[in-house]
Amino acid sequence: MLSLLFQEGPSTKGIFRRSGSAKTFKELKEKLDSGTEVSLAHESIFVTASLLKDFLRNIPGSILSSQLCDKWVSVLDQGNTEEKIKSIQRLIEHLPRANVVLLRYIFGVLHEIEMRSEENQMNAFNLAVCIAPSLLWPPVSSTPDIESEFIKKISSLVQFLIENCCRIFGDEITSLFGEI
Questions:
Q1: What pLDDT, in 10s, does the model give residues 102-128?
Q2: What is the per-residue pLDDT across 85-99, written as a single tens digit (0 to 9) for each?
Q3: 48 three-class SS
Q4: DSSP string for residues in 93-130
Q5: Spatial distance between the Cα atoms of 26 and 18, rounded to a whole number of angstroms
Q6: What is the CATH number of the domain that holds 106?
Q7: Nearest residue to 52 (alpha-carbon basis) of 84, 20, 96
Q8: Residue 170 in contact with residue 88, Cβ under 8 Å?
Q9: Domain span at residue 56?
Q10: Three-state DSSP class for 82?
Q11: In whole angstroms, how far apart are CA 137 and each of 50, 122, 123, 149?
């Protein structure tokens, strides 16, 4: 999924914002959940983007770890950009290795899409609004007002992560998928 999104996402207007066919999404999700081999190469890239967001939403405790939720939310309240980056790097050290590897690939894709935002209309802000709710959620449910405020904070955090991903994850994030 990530490789396809890396290849096609940067040239796709509204990637992560638009949804693909609900019927196709449901059929592919059922196949993936049952362990059936699935080829996404001939499917809509919007269905692939929806499948990725769904996969991320179903990671127990979220990929950024709901246990660290308060710390993630408070990162942007800290000093200058350097201090924020250092705080994020310290938080990443507390995540399971599998989560960190997956995050690097996700932000490699988001960075590539953002680099061509004039073409696809998905700058870091737009990408963050679409993907942030799939990356982190609070450990307990709350009122709609608190949840709305939380989503705004997480979206700002994800926007910062996209805009600074090379400094946070390292410059090699741009070459994780090789040359397309």
A1: 999 999 999 999 999 999 999 999 999
A2: 999 999 999 999 999
A3: helix
A4: TTS-HHHHHHHHHHHHHHHHHHHTHHHHS--HHHHHHH
A5: 16
A6: 1.10.555.10
A7: 20
A8: no
A9: 1-174
A10: helix
A11: 18, 23, 22, 12
